[in-house]
Amino acid sequence: MKVVCVIPARYGSTRLPGKPLADIAGKPMIQRVYERVSKAKRPDAVIVATDDRRVYDAVVSFGGQVVMTRNDHPTGTDRLAEVAEGLADVDVIINVQGDEPLIEPTLIDELADLFAADDAPHMATVGAPLMEEEYNEPSAVKVVCNKKGDAMYFSRSLIPYPRHNFVNSPLKHIGIYAYSKPFLLQYATMEPTPAEQTESLEQLRALENGYTIRVIPTQSRFVGVDTPEDLALVNRIFKEQQV
Q1: At residue 176, what are phi and psi to the nearest 5 degrees?
Q2: Measured between alpha carbons, how far is 1 from 89 in angstroms, rounded to an integer?
Q3: How does pLDDT run across 144-188, given as a tens digit for each residue?
Q4: How far apart are CA 239 and CA 243, in angstroms?
Q5: pTM for the whole thing?
Q6: Coil, strand, or helix at residue 144?
Q7: In whole angstroms, what is the distance from residue 186 CA to residue 189 CA?
Q8: At what angle do helices 29-37 and 105-114 cross, to 10 degrees?
Q9: Residue closest to 7 by CA, chosen among 91, 86, 96
């Protein structure tokens, strides 16, 4: 089974323009993400997918593999599908968001291993404990799973609504996905769906079309970089680790 990890990296960002090139302890964020992902054992290759020459040049400068994509993709997954079309003999595509410089490499391997099983999913992702201070934070996406570990819904709102105390701790969705290549290419042909457009969460397109998304639970904590405050926090973490 051949596994490729693709990191979509769009230069434009409403809250943090030029985010892939934001400095994190002396290196651009895209390099931090690339180096972190490269520590995983299962992927046969790591590729950055971008529509911006500045990001492309930055990846080339640190010796990473990068491809240019069209600039009209509505989501990162659509960008991922363009890359997947050009990859021969690949079975699984793992999508790590370009703003997750603290992603845990072992989770990438766990996601890849799911697709070697007889009951391999079409798509999989990760859920971590949701902190109380994130309950009402729209950038902290929540996920509710059924007893099989498959996602029932993702939302920027707090779900399930705690009319009573939580029976299980709520989960925060982590920005990493894995797909079988055939499903990824099929996904890219689907029209955007109502909940996807309302929440601005592309994974809802799969659920609304009746597909399941397996969710791997983890106790690891991550800091996705969405704001200048997130960037400052991640800088502190890397400087403390002296990485």
Answers
A1: -140, 135
A2: 9
A3: 999 999 999 999 999 999 999 998 889 999 989 999 999 999 999
A4: 7
A5: 0.90
A6: strand
A7: 5
A8: 50
A9: 96
